[in-house]
User: Fold this.
Amino acid sequence: MASELYNTIDALSREKGIDPQIVVSAVEDAIVVATRKYYKSQENLRAVLDKDTGKISAYAVKAIVEAPEQVEDPNLQVTVDEARKVDPAAEVGGELRIPKPTEGILGRIAAQLAKQVIFQKVREAERDTVYNEYIGRVGEIVTATVKRVEGPDVIFDVGKAEARMPRKEQSRLESFAVGERVRVVIARLERGAKGPQVVVSRAAPELVQHLFQTEVPEIYDGTVVIRAIAREAGERTKIAVMSKDKDVDAVGACVGMKGMRVQSIIRELRGEKIDIIEYQEDAVTFAEKALQPAKVSRVTVLDSADKHLEVIVDDSQLSLAIGKKGQNVRLAAKLLGWKIDIKSEEEKRQEVELQMNALVDATTTPLDRVPELGEGILEKLSEAGVTTVEALADMTPEQLEAIPGIGPKTVEKISIAVNNYFSSLEAPEGAAAVPVEEGGEFVADVSAPGGEQPGEVEATSAEGEVAASDEQLLDASPAGVTDETSAPQQEPAPQEELSGEGEPKAESGGE
Assistant:
């Protein structure tokens, strides 16, 4: 039959929810501490509690060695001959237990010390028990009782331990009274100086999920599935649901007849707004629904790998889509798991205009890319604000002549230079553009289809003679050449007298 002391230890163990052997070990350790303090000994002491009698015995334990020279510390070792004087059955390699009288050694100070050791061991065991109990229950919904309020924190009784709810885990809409029973989520366990601390929450999305499972039978039996929840406690929650049965409306099941089911959940959350959205596999369609109540004009996937969307809304819907302090778009992004850039139609139009202007600026060509324009002409054009080939090509002869220092002959030269530049860009691969020069003559040898060789085509110009008007020059063919086979017959232009080298003899006139 167990002793009264052991029965007391067993009752304490059940109260604290710990193993009785842990308390027994704590009592034995306390007796060892008190005995060492009484005898002021450095021996290896050990205490044993007899379960039946309740008596605690203390011993000095020494290792048995064979020869005296092997004894390094007399407090810890003893020879086999000395050991057999106390215990005839002692053998080398064994232990010798020398009893230490304990009657009268537990004075007031020693008893207090033993009590402290016992309480410390029990507290350590209790902490381990709490940690092992709740570490596997993180995310679970439990009903807790408000025990007290400590500043911004609320302390709950959750059964075998106290739990703390810090301010960030509370809804701003809620307040608690001592003794009130509340459903909370076990959020995490924090290890501290006083042992593991259970932290509970009323702001976690799991609480909303649990409330829907309780209120909506279709969710409880698996017909309707909650795919995602995004929540800002005390403000708004967005929940995405889908139905596994085509005959069951997921959103309607969660709302309930006349909104009774969702209103019950809203009351539990003290008036927090809840948006119930039908889940869609397609991110674009899902984004349109997630941004409700705003109406979306269009959604574009910017980067599917990075999960990045661009949403365009009407100007009047922009503030509604963004929500108060960005709450609506923030919750939608959290619900989708995508980054969302939201813009109004006007903002998008301005952005496109900037991109187009940048594209136009990128395709402009500086005038110095046209080698046939001399430095003097380039300088005059730059002074007039004409800096690109494209701007020069858009100007009429009259506009060019209005520039100081540029006359009809220079206009003609500019037109030919610009035409030659664009002809070089449009020339087919492997074909070189033939320049047209003032006062010069060229012959273009062009291979005709079918291997036929067309005749020679000549173009000449000389001082005082204008081969074509300014308008004709601007509308000339890219190579500035007229094919004899297709052009109407014209009277040949007067030929210049050629020198011996075949160059035209013409004096350059002033501009």
Observations:
- The chain has four domains: 4-129, 138-201, 280-354, 367-474.
